[in-house]
């Protein structure tokens, strides 16, 4: 495949921390953008994400590598009086500027759109917040677990009846939000191609969470009748439920009406189609627990490999519930470039997860390790027009720190 690096020449300044903003920059980098990650002298706190329970423990900083591959790093203490000269040159250099600093702090640091757009009216300023720019909680700090999951309604719905809300996988809402922020950036870049104008684009963890929960939130908007939380033994629909094979594998089964007869035949129970308890819609609803119990008995009689062949044979939708250590060995991941090699990270970190967007005919940039703190200080500052003496002055005054491997 030819590699035309769609975003070759696109210059991105990533001022964001943790996951969602930096991950949007990663998607741009996957397609060739030059991304400069700007960190405080102490570094992005997500560099230590692998040390914070309940994240899986490892010697390798795998969460930071995932969110910051293919980037160059410089440090910048925005509270230092000399920082504005560096900030101005970064903004003049950039096509895209990504930031998630809370707005009150952003205002003090002169990082608001009105501050930086004066230097570069063609700039795409990508703003990520927890709860949106307006409203009573606009300044409330938010992580994906609080804003994307809890506030949006997702966390209340992704549990079984009688169970308390659980703790979602770290970064799951962030990475979904990253795709949304990327889409906003690309939309603004297209607008700039047509008009020559820059844009201020934004999304929030809350907006993305509500979008993800939108089928049920839309139902609430029209005052629909909800069935309540899922109860596996007493489901609203036994044909859309979770079952367990004899080898202990749980699987999700989705049998739509047009497949009922074929599935009943495939599992050897066509009698269920004419059973008076289930053939009448009203009786079926009343006897859903009994039907579930029958299906439990059937599915627990054979291993998942058997049901894979049965369901695949009638082309019905199903999915085995896999754990992370099983997922990484799924042949579909490498066959579709979902997991790709990672160059230079060292340790056991030899692979990473590619962004979920593919353009046929375009090969993504090979994934390279995330940078050390301030690793590219001299390189980037030279490109911005600072000579050796000026760089030494910036370091001496505390504007920058670190550098080198």
Commentary on this structure:
The chain has about 400 residues and is of the alpha/beta class. The chain folds into two domains: about 10-210 and about 330-395, Rossmann fold; about 240-245 and about 250-320, 2-Layer Sandwich (formyl-coa transferase, domain 3). It has 20 helices and twelve strands. The chain has helices at about 20-30, 60-70, 85-95, 105-110, 115, 145-150, 155, 170-195, 205-210, 215-220, 260-265, 270-275, 275-280, 280-285, 290-300, 305-315, 325, 330-335, 375-385, 390-395; strands at about 10-15, 35-40, 70-75, 95-100, 125-130, 200-205, 240-245, 250-255, 315-320, 340-345, 350-355, 365-370. The strands form three sheets. A six-stranded parallel beta sheet has the order 3-2-1-4-5-6, with helices on both faces. It has a three-stranded antiparallel beta sheet with strand order 7-8-9, with helices on one face. Strand 2, helix 2 and strand 3 (about 70-75) form a beta-alpha-beta unit. It is elongated, with a radius of gyration of 26 Å. The two termini are about 35 Å apart. The mean pLDDT is about 95.
């Amino acid at each position: 495949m030819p590699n035309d690096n769609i975003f070759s020449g696109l210059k991105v300044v990533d001022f964001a921390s943790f996951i969602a903003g930096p991950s949007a920059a990663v998607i741009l980098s996957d397609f060739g953008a030059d991304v400069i990650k700007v960190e405080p002298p102490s570094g992005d706190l997500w560099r230590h994400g692998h040390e914070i329970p309940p994240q899986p423990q490892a010697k390798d900083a795998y969460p930071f590598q995932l969110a910051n591959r293919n980037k160059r790093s410089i440090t910048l203490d925005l509270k230092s009086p000399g920082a504005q000269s560096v900030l101005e040159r970064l903004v003049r250099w950039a096509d895209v500027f990504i930031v998630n600093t809370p707005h009150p702090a952003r205002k003090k640091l002169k990082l608001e759109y009105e501050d930086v757009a004066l230097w570069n009216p063609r700039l795409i300023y990508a703003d990520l917040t927890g709860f949106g720019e307006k409203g009573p909680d606009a300044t409330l700090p938010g992580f994906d677990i609080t804003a994307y999951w809890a506030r949006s309604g997702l966390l209340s719905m992704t549990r079984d009846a009688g169970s308390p809300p659980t703790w979602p996988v770290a970064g799951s809402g962030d990475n979904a939000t990253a795709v949304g922020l990327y889409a906003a950036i690309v939309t603004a870049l297209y607008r700039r191609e047509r008009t020559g104008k820059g844009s201020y684009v934004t999304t929030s963890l809350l907006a993305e969470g509500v979008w993800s929960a939108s089928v049920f939130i839309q139902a609430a908007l029209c005052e629909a009748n909800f069935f309540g939380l899922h109860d596996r033994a007493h489901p609203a629909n036994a044909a859309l439920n979770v079952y367990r094979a004899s080898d202990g594998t749980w699987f999700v089964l989705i049998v739509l009406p047009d497949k009922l007869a074929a599935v009943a035949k495939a599992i050897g129970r066509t009698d269920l189609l004419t059973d008076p308890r289930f053939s009448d819609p009203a009786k079926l609803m009343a006897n859903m627990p009994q039907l579930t119990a029958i299906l439990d008995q059937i599915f627990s009689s054979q291993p998942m490999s058997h049901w894979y062949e049965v369901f695949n044979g009638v082309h019905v939708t199903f999915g085995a519930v896999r754990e992370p250590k099983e997922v990484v060995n799924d042949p579909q991941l490498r066959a579709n470039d979902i997991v790709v090699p990672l160059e230079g990270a060292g340790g056991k970190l030899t692979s990473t997860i590619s962004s979920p967007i593919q353009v046929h005919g375009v090969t993504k940039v090979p994934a390279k390790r995330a940078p050390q703190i301030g690793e590219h200080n001299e390189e980037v500052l030279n490109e911005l027009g600072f000579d050796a003496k000026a760089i030494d002055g910036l370091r001496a005054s505390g504007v920058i720190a670190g550098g080198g491997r």
